[in-house]
Specification:
By secondary structure, the protein is of the alpha/beta class. It folds into five domains: 35-307, Aldolase class I (TIM Barrel); 344-452, no CATH class; 462-476 and 485-594, Alpha-isopropylmalate synthase LeuA, regulatory domain (Double Stranded RNA Binding Domain), CATH 3.30.160; 605-665; 675-788, Double Stranded RNA Binding Domain (2-Layer Sandwich). The protein is 38% helix and 22% strand. The strands form six sheets. It has an eight-stranded parallel sheet. A three-stranded antiparallel sheet has the order 9-10-11, sandwiched between helices. Strand 6, helix 8 (227-240) and strand 7 (247-253) form a beta-alpha-beta unit. Helix 4 runs parallel beside helix 6 (147-172) and helix 16 packs parallel to helix 18 (578-594). The structure holds zinc ion. Zinc ion (ZN) binds next to loops. Its cofactor is a divalent metal cation. It is an enzyme of class 2 (transferase). Residues 472-491 are annotated as: Disordered. This is 2-isopropylmalate synthase.
Length: 796
């Protein structure tokens, strides 16, 4: 037999609506926040399986103060010693700010009222809160009191509270307010509640305007009717209580029907001034009304709530650790999933919403207007609660390309073209399908870096741009009407690393990108056609960069077919130089094109030796000149050789290779170079390194120079530095002996780095020096290296 009744009316009756002729609340709107009272430490605490320890209560109390609560119900002191001593602790340790009223609850019983007063001795501002139940069920069944006896109970104890309040105020200089709760208000005849409250107000006898108002707290002790009914009850009470200006009407909604929020909001429209509740809706059974949601509901209507949840995570952490109850992942404003969109269409809308809003806000700022929040699916800016946008979009099987593109933009500052979004989305789908789990932000950024070889040495592909220069040259074909060359063409001349080997490649085109594509075709047999090229700026000011996106397709014989190719490869490049950014994007895409296909080897033949690499080149130098080149100089010279042999189809003789080496680095040649060494000597400086004093010939003029350093070479470089603009430093130095017997001499290898004033990039060059004196050999090498750089000499 089923447990639920087919006809529940046989078991449950409906609420009885009020007959109100002239309801006001349905057409009202809220314009200001109510007074808030947190009862987390009383109603919330008493509903916990394990009530809070004193330490937890203290932590919670401090949080409530920090959030801005000015009225806090801290305990039911007559009910437990823990509560009593907690009240004492707060007072005796000055934990209560001067502008905060503490509230304590007491039943209508003389000994318990007296005990409650004892607990608050010494507090500056106290709200005494007394309750007794009024509804027929309690009158007739629980207490067996008549209506008259019920009123008498309330007034007699109110009178006692009045006497004690006066007494303590005099003896301890305390300020008291009085809150009376006609318990079970929503299940009580309204006229009877009014009758009791009028009697209580009269006995209290101190109700006045402003701060002296008596508080009538009208609880939905159990929520038994829809929220409109509560609003009716509150509006009726407000309209019929006498001296309304001397009364604060307070709400205390519980959430048995899941409509406590609605009940509180409608009852505020009904005229209530104050709301009692708990953070995230803790409290008996289904809980008290959630004050976080109520406050943020006001906030998102543009109304200052006077509660601060700027660090919502801290609030969640404190509350959950004290209550030992989690916040539901879908809890309004605070749940971990509420600012998260999994669905692709939602993500797309949010991404577009953010973009449109950014544009709108720039205009607003320019016009001095408010930058209003207006976003699809997001009633609140997560940033206002101290949340980042990271959680806004998460990726699962339902997520679309827009969501992923959004994340790439957030984390890598790259605004991917639409077609590239589709291409990258397929990469992520594969990961998602393969791993069968939510794809994290790290998964996405890592996949992006790996796919497009983007973002540093860890993600480099087989081809990497090392250096380049672009030169303009007149077009050989086209001429304008005057018969003069119309268009300039561009030549790309650069060094790229191909599977770890430096290759010098050259190509021509209408622009740098087509020149590089031409070079790749010529030297590496990579035949691709550019289909799309886009770029945008990233960042601003000095650090601004250009991001470039390139789509390549495989070249076919038919131009139309090439354009329509179904397979394509995207690449991305980022560089402070826009040309370099585009070239990097080409290589990024080309790395996708080549996969692990074998590339043609470098065609370089020295003498009769075909397919040479840099170790062959250095073998020739050691055999011909007796020089052992440092590893990085080998690589550098290998580039020089490649560049030199471009016109001779990669062929060079042994002799030409030696001569090329000597001319390039100034090893035992006639030409002295821009900087050369004259007489010099070193002096010692007390407490310092050696002092270089001597002559240097600079651009044909002998200058007397001095310099100081840790060693002879650095002192000489310092002396040279005193004659030039910018900075010079030694990156690498090595030397060895050559020759035998009396012919022995030292050969030095120096690599200098030069940064001219205002230049974006540093320049480096190697130089060689030889001398019977090892010190002179090193200095000569440094001056040779300097001669090869575009060093700006100071005027004599
Ligand atoms: Zn309650």
């Amino acid at each position: 037999m089923p447990c639920m009744l087919i006809d529940p009316s046989q078991k449950y009756g409906p609420y009885v609506p009020l007959k109100l002729d002239n309801r006001q609340w349905p057409t009202k709107t809220v314009t200001k926040a109510p007074i808030w009272l947190s009862t987390d430490l009383r109603d919330g605490n008493q509903a916990l399986a394990c009530p809070m320890t004193s330490e937890q209560k203290l932590t919670f109390f401090r949080l409530l103060v920090k959030c801005g609560f000015k009225e806090i119900e801290i305990a039911f002191p007559s009910a437990s010693d823990t509560d009593f001593s907690f009240v004492r602790y707060l007072i005796e340790n000055n934990e209560i700010p001067d502008d905060v009223w503490i509230q304590v609850l007491t039943p209508a019983r003389e000994d318990l009222i007296r005990r409650s007063f004892e607990s608050v001795v010494g507090a500056k501002h106290v709200i005494m809160h007394m309750y007794n139940a009024l509804c027929p069920m309690f009158r007739n069944v629980v207490f067996r009191n008549s209506k008259a006896q019920t009123i008498e109970l309330a007034t007699r104890h109110t009178k006692l509270i009045r006497e004690l309040a006066d007494q303590y105020a005099t003896s301890h200089g305390m300020k008291f307010r009085y809150e009376y709760s006609p318990e079970t208000f929503t299940q009580t005849e309204l006229e009877f509640s009014l009758e009791v409250c009028e009697a209580v107000k009269e006995v209290w006898g101190k109700a006045g305007p402003g701060i002296d108002r008596i508080i009538f707290n009208l609880p939905a002790t159990v929520e038994v009717a829809p929220p409109n009914h509560y609003a009716d009850q509150i509006e009726y009470f407000c309209a019929h209580i006498s001296e309304r200006e001397k009364v604060i009407i307070s709400l205390h909604p519980h959430n048995d029907r899941g409509t406590a929020i609605a009940a509180a909001e409608l009852a505020v429209l009904g005229g209530a001034d104050r709301v009692e509740g708990c953070l995230f809706g803790n409290g008996e059974r289904t809980g008290n009304v959630d004050l976080v949601t109520l406050a943020l509901n006001l906030y998102t209507q543009g109304i200052t709530p006077y509660l601060d949840f700027s660090d919502i995570q801290e609030v969640i952490d404190v509350v959950t650790s004290c209550n030992n109850i989690p916040v539901h992942p879908r809890h309004p404003y605070a749940g971990e999933l509420v600012f998260t969109a999994f669905s692709g269409s939602h993500q797309d809308a949010i991404k577009k919403g953010f973009e449109a809003q950014d544009i709108r806000h720039v205009k607003n700022a320019a016009n001095g207007e408010s930058q209003m929040w207006d976003m699809p699916y997001m009633p609140l800016d997560p940033a206002d609660l101290g949340c980042t946008y990271e959680a806004v979009i998460r990726v699962n099987a339902q997520s679309g390309k827009a969501g992923i593109a959004y994340l790439v933009k957030q984390h890598l500052q790259l605004d991917l073209p639409r077609k590239m979004q589709i291409a990258f989305y397929k990469v992520i789908q594969d990961i998602s399908d393969r791993e069968a789990r939510e794809v994290t932000i790290e998964d996405i950024t890592t996949a992006f870096r790996q796919t497009y070889h983007f973002g540093g040495p860890n993600y480099e592909g087989r081809l990497v741009l090392r250096s380049f220069h672009i030169t303009a040259e007149p077009s050989p074909h086209s001429t304008n009407d005057d018969g003069e060359p119309s268009d300039e063409r561009r030549r790309f001349d650069g060094t790229i690393s191909v599977d770890g080997v430096l290759r010098v490649i050259r190509g021509d085109g209408n622009g740098p990108i087509s020149a590089l594509i031409d070079a790749l075709r010529t030297h590496l047999e990579i035949d691709v056609t550019l289909r799309e090229y886009l770029e945008h700026g990233v960042g601003g000011g000095q650090d601004s960069k250009a991001a470039s996106y390139i789509e390549l397709v495989a070249t076919t014989d038919d131009v139309k077919e090439t354009r329509r190719a179904s397979e394509s490869w995207w690449g991305v490049g980022l560089d402070s130089d826009i040309v370099a950014s585009g070239l990097r994007a080409v290589l990024s895409a080309v790395n996708g094109v080549i996969g692990d296909r074998e590339l043609p080897e470098l065609k370089l033949s020295i003498g009769s030796n075909v397919t040479c690499d840099k170790s062959h080149v250095s073998d020739v130098i050691i055999n011909a000149l007796g020089l052992e080149l440092p590893r990085r100089l080998q690589a550098s010279f290998f580039e020089v050789v490649q560049r030199k042999t471009h016109e001779s189809d990669g062929k060079i003789s042994h002799d030409d290779l030696s001569r090329l080496f000597q001319d390039t680095y100034g090893y035992e040649v006639e030409d002295k170079g821009k900087f050369s060494l004259g007489d010099f000597h070193f002096e010692r400086v007390d407490g310092g390194g050696p002092l270089f004093k001597g002559e240097m010939e600079i651009e044909g003029v002998v200058r007397k120079v001095t310099g100081e350093g840790n060693g002879p070479l650095s002192a000489a470089i310092d002396a040279l530095l005193s004659q030039v603009e910018g900075t010079l430093s030694c990156r690498e130095y090595s030397e060895h002996a050559v020759g035998e017997g009396s012919d022995v001499k030292a050969v030095s290898f120096v690599e200098l780095v030069y940064e001219s004033p205002g230049a974006a990039k540093k320049e480096a060059a190697w130089g060689l020096g030889s001398d019977t004196d090892i010190t002179a050999s090193g200095i000569r090498a440094a001056l040779r290296a300097a001669s090869r750089l575009d060093v700006v000499v100071k005027k004599a």
